[in-house]
Design goal:
Elements (H helix, E strand, L loop, with lengths): L11 E5 L4 H11 L4 E6 L12 H11 L2 E6 L5 H15 L4 E4 L14 H26 L6 E4 L9 H26 L6 E6 L7 H5 L4 H5 L5 H11 L10 E3 H7 L25
Parallel strand pairs: 1-2, 1-4, 2-3, 4-5, 5-6, 6-7
Length: about 280
Amino acid sequence: MTGAHSRLAGRTVLMSGGSRGIGLAIALRAARDGANIALLAKTDTPDPRLPGTVHTAAAEIEAAGGKALGIVGDVREEEDVRRAVQATVERFGGIDVVLNNASAIALLSPGELPLKRYDLMMDINVRGTFLLSSLALPHLHESSHAQILTLSPPLNPDRRWLRDHAPYTVSKYGMTMLTLGIAEQHRDSALSANCLWPATTIVTAATLNMGGGEETVNRSRTPGIMADAAYEILTRPAGHTTGQTFVDEEVLRESGVTGFDGYRANPASTEPLHRDLFL
């Protein structure tokens, strides 16, 4: 590919998760340009509830035109993340993009949420974002296209999010605050650090496993809208934008997209789309 259709060609993305869902969709969109994608994920073997492993994702990336490195590991563990950073640099010569994609969700309140699940959310969402971003920073500073993109929401002070599920809210806002903190810390450098969140619910195996059925499909979009929005952010000029919390629709409108019907999970549905959390 050449020109505008290969803006990520040769660039290296290190992503947490990515075996399926939104992360994989973003990886495949970058792969179509010829990007290098390194995935750090725990999914070494198939799970009957959640199709896809780090190995199947790597194969899809290669088939889409990218180069893939599947790394089995846990974003919560320092040694695993160090190993992933080192392996990515050894394989591809550096890191241009860190994508904090891995996330755990449990929409329960204090008194309902078991401590084990609280710890899991905080460790994957907040600790994982901190670890991967921190350990990749020295290599990002060597890139002329350095970016951190975190899949986390704008900071919305509406207290209904605390009322309904304070633990999950804390973990997702923690991801955002860390990313915005990195943006401010490195504002005088070429590094950009931003967040991206969907305007509507997105249909993935994980959301369907949480109890979403036909109604969820009829009122949601596919991961493709997040993939296209992420692509628009990642292909902006170095240092163009930092410290922003983007919403997918807004990003695509700015790039000239005028219609979103093609992203509906059920193209035949006329039901109103369901607004995502935190918006």
